[in-house]
Design goal:
homotetramer; 311 residues; alpha+beta; Helix Hairpins; five-stranded mixed beta sheet; five-stranded antiparallel beta sheet; 5 helices; 27% helix; 31% strand; elongated
Chain lengths: 311, 311, 311, 311
């Protein structure tokens, strides 16, 4: 291909095909998730329930559990009510509504296995259904235990990326630079970065992908911050291109970082992308202040990775 | 070996030996499982109970839990009944059957730890057995919790393979092509493919295995679909062979794909195989429609990976 | 070193030092565990309780749980008894022994959270202790749930090794051969083998370790059986040595196999060792019978991997 | 750079930047944790609660659970008390304090699901709140189960490092040596070591990092002890430097060891660092005594790895 300064570059296949979408479409959302929705197997078959329960927000998850708890108690209370309140010992209410409510409480006492026993099943059918409900309760809470463990133990991306990607002075030339830091107190180790540029080829309107060389593509620790630098030398597909031209070609810089969560020795994959609107020229990053506090600890303010100044 | 156009190819050892079976025998079932059954250590010693509980269908698992629940309650109720209903407080039934049923309910209230208490153990032996049963209940539900978590958290193969494998035009020559897509909404990353052809050698009636070169054998994302292509150039063991000849040699194409489940950073192994009856010639895949929906998401219909057209 | 046919071989460091023990000492036990006991940090500091609970036999684990359950109930019942049975409602026994036993049952009903309630704490101190006991019960069963899950989900070595290691005809020369098979129905994939020979150097009485070249050191599947072959060519440290000489040098063949459990995508490490008494000469393995049963499955009897015949 | 004997060495990037702190600041604490504190996202946003619960000491964790249990019971008891003790059946106390205490016991019986039932909710609001509390109890104990499992199943660093790092005779030259051993009875396999020296460059007052060559950088087993040796030949950045000079340059030797816990096949990362005050010259390690006990086991006292003697 000849669009970059009359030179040829090797394309990379990362799995997004070569179709070009309208310019506002990103390959990655701001949270690093892939901007693709799969359909075609029927309404629910593309959904994996466990993954869905793991990935919905904590607020939604709690809401879901409470809703489910309400529904299942109403469901069983209705069955019990149809059997008749006289199938249960300890129900002294006389109005149907009070009896129904008492049976809701009884249902909740059964499904959570709290079983006070001031209300208890007397008739055979009521006893059998209560027996099934308590089994169901144990199974449900076994599932909830598993999902909760799955939720908080799964390796989560805790990287913070600088808001902008800079074209800044680098040695004698320029470099494409961004910074990352770990937002959390636990350590990320054995970190590796891969940076891919995707661009529209104006001649055939196809998407093309190029891996960008990095000055340093792995660090053992992400203890402070990491400035990832692609030197824009004459081998770079960015060489000699202005930000205007990058905009015209709808450039997106895709970042893939893999590290290891030091607490659990589990791999963590982080993704981020910068659209050409996030590029800045003639600026440089301000080095992070690293101080030693009175405990002898090196203190770094991760939020400062965004800071840059005009050259 | 000389059966392929008078050229020699290096054999691959993937672990299936060199014995040739009758033509209808596949090395892999359609769900990707290996078509082998191991015996020789006594009836149950080849079974690992935990693996078995993990792999049986959800329907069978639920059936098993309910059956087990019924049996264990009948078992303990029988012991309690032999001890005598007068060992228990709160049993007002007079007929033996009613008493037996009451003891079944009591057993279920004990093993689930719901313990209403309208029936309770009074005698020493009854109290001790109930105490053991409630311990047993906790252990059993600890196991069920673990098995349920094991069931839904284990990395599952969610790849969809095109129904056919095509011998389609590829650049100036032909290529062996099939397509895969992820059926689910979560992402598979760092995907690697290995394709092995197994064929009967007509001269010595032995099985032989050959690794097929792939145009691209790894992609970072399996976001849309992936067309895996083996170029049938003069270095390919498929070069110049007709589908008829592939049939005669009982060719099976074995596909091994390894990826990483992006939600859990866990490795996923997928397997598939195509028998020669699934080959098609003089056709090509229809590119998948990739649209952008009103949320700005790229939408792809995974079921379309099967679609192909005559050239 | 000059002990092997006047040739030099490169030693391997696998981590067992170079000290030579008396001949009956193995580096590996027959179950693959390393035959080393570490001391020096005080009686219990070398033990990790979780690992210990994971690795003791199921029988011992069950015994431990029951013993612990008995002791903790006796402990709490003793406290309750010291407080006085009149601190509890529902105790109608008059003899001290009966009261003590009733309190044991109450304790077990509290710790398992079954809580029938026919006996219940009335006094303040009794209520507080019962409240603490039920918390303790939940924590203990949380731990037991975790340990049980840890026990059955941990990757276990399920390889069966042939009883003998053979020096058998191999192409034009001889080969050192043994066979392995997976005892269980689930699959082991991506298997890799490393074979190390350790020998006493008669000149300086030191242990030496040599990695042995293998004909094939990895297979994708361990579906049937795998014959691992070290060709005894003139580059092998075994070349020209008789079994008598191997005995004199107290040779131990150490085998390290790494695979992936296909159900959980977890790595499995298997170890085995053969002492020179397990060598056999002038025999060869009988190929395993592989039949197709009426379900179309390839059936293999893993126990047949031991079978060999005189050449 | 010219500070080491007029020779140039390649610097290593491990992720700690090039800023030099006052000499007493270590990069690693004695427990191997990284000596960095991240701030900048608001008081709590740098904390991950799950990681925090996993990493606090067992004593603090137990204290936390008990405190939380007390607070939540006081909280619910207060709500119940505000509703009025007459909303509950079975409360016979007349003084407000006794009623409040009874409601605390009731709360604990509800949240642990022990539910004796001698006290039980009668009014509608009390029943609903008790029903919510029992749900909350199950969720909380699901979380505690997960955290406890996370705590004891996470791969922990169990390496013991010798107190000193020695500059000892090694073949014809000298070597930098330290010893490691596994403190626990389970095995660590597939161990790999990386050793990095960090030093102050007196010319520009910057930190520099150099990877040190190792004689052997991996062993299959860490069964006994492992002496890790960096030969101080003329290619070493330590060549010709006295301990005094190392002190002046505030040298810190950083050790990264990765192994696999053999019981769980999980990766374990261990870190350690030696400051120049821990260097010793003209001494050598005393070989560990390895005896065979009456069970035929090789016994090694790991605490002896510290022992050294004057040359």
């Amino acid at each position: 291909m000849a669009i970059f300064n009359g030179k040829k570059y090797n394309e990379t296949e990362i799995g997004f095909g070569s179709k070009n979408y309208r310019d506002s479409v990103r390959f990655f959302n701001s949270d690093g998730s892939v901007n693709v929705w799969r359909t075609g197997l029927g309404k629910l078959n593309n959904i994996d329930i466990y993954h869905w329960l793991i990935k919905i927000s904590l607020k939604n998850f709690i809401f879901l559990v409470i809703t489910f708890y309400a529904i299942i108690n109403i469901f069983f209370a209705s069955i019990y009510f149809l059997l008749g309140a006289n199938q249960f010992g300890g129900i002294t209410s006389v109005s149907a509504l009070d009896q129904y409510l008492d049976l809701i409480y009884f249902s909740s006492q059964t499904i959570t296995t709290v079983g006070y026993g001031h209300v208890y099943p007397m008739g055979h059918i009521a006893s059998i259904i209560a027996s099934i409900q308590s089994l169901l309760g144990l199974l449900i809470f076994a599932i909830i235990t598993g999902v909760l463990f799955g939720r908080f133990s799964r390796p989560k991306d805790t990287l913070l990326y600088s808001n902008h990607i800079l074209i800044a002075p680098y040695r004698q030339i320029k470099g494409l630079m961004f910074r990352v830091a770990n937002k959390k107190q636990f350590e990320l180790i054995e970190n590796e970065a891969k940076v891919v540029m995707t661009t529209k080829n104006p001649e055939n309107n196809k998407r093309e992908f190029y891996t960008l060389n990095l000055e340093i593509d792995r660090v053992n620790f992400l203890a402070l911050s990491w400035t990832i630098v692609h030197p824009i030398d004459d081998k770079s597909p960015l060489f000699g291109l202005s930000i205007d031209e990058l905009n015209k070609r709808d450039v997106e810089i895709i970042i893939l970082i893999k590290g290891v969560n030091d607490t659990f020795s589990s791999s963590v994959y982080s993704r981020h992308s910068y659209k050409s609107s996030q590029f800045k020229e003639n600026v440089r990053f301000i080095p992070l202040k690293q101080d030693v506090d009175n405990r002898g600890k090196v203190v770094v303010s991760v939020n400062d990775i965004h800071l840059h100044e005009t050259v």
